Amino acid sequence: MNSIKHVAIIMDGNGRWGIKYKKSRNLGHKEGLKTVEKIIKATLKNKIKYLTLYAFSTENWKRPKKEINFLFNLLENFLLNKISDLIKQNIKLKIIGKKNFSSKLNKLLNLSEKKTIQNSKLQINLALNYGSKSEIISALNEIKKNKLKISESNISKNLYTKTIPDPDILIRTGNTKRLSNFLLWQLAYSEIFFEKKLWPDFIEKDYIRILNNFKKIKRNFGNI
User: Fold this and answer.
1) Does 204 fall in a domain?
2) 77 catalytic, yes or no?
3) CB atoms < 10 A from the CB of 143, how many?
4) What pLDDT, in 10s, does the model give residues 154-165?
5) Can you say whether residue 146 is alpha, beta or left, with left for phi > 0 and alpha for psi between -120 and 50 degrees?
6) Of 2, 26, 46, 60, which one is the catalytic site residue?
7) Which has the least CB within 10 A, 14, 62, 108, 137?
8) Which candidate in 12, 166, 168, 206 is catalytic?
């Protein structure tokens, strides 16, 4: 039976859910945050050490400014209201991506990382302003700057995820079958589960079903 150290999730479908049920994309994002909290609890319950959530991609800057501002306000409020809960639950928060946000949000992200740095039960990697292609380019530039040989090992050591094991599982909700520039290097041997449900409709039962299915998969990694 396969053990699970790391689950990565593309939380797709918030906006579509909001339009469908509330006639507002923003209310879909707000509802999606409730699903995030449920999945964090289920991840803790199943003793999984790493959870990576694709929260905002480098391509998401193309969205309407009002929606972007709403998303960042939602994130700020979450961190302000929930950081003490993360600490109590022994959860570490790590941001992967470039922190090109407002000084207020950057300060809050840095503070949240600092306050939770010693926590060890679960590490939540929040992919913000994240794009895998730019991450790989950044790693190659670091290798060049340090006059190192270009190798798989050196690339892995210079990614944002250098201290994190590669995901065992990728889950994408929203009935879309693509990776959307997310962890392209790290997902090379991950098992991928595409779910039809929109993210706010994704429940713990769906999550557990995927975890159980993964445990039964025969994983060869190129072998027979």
Assistant:
1) yes
2) no
3) 17
4) 999 999 999 999
5) alpha
6) 60
7) 62
8) 12
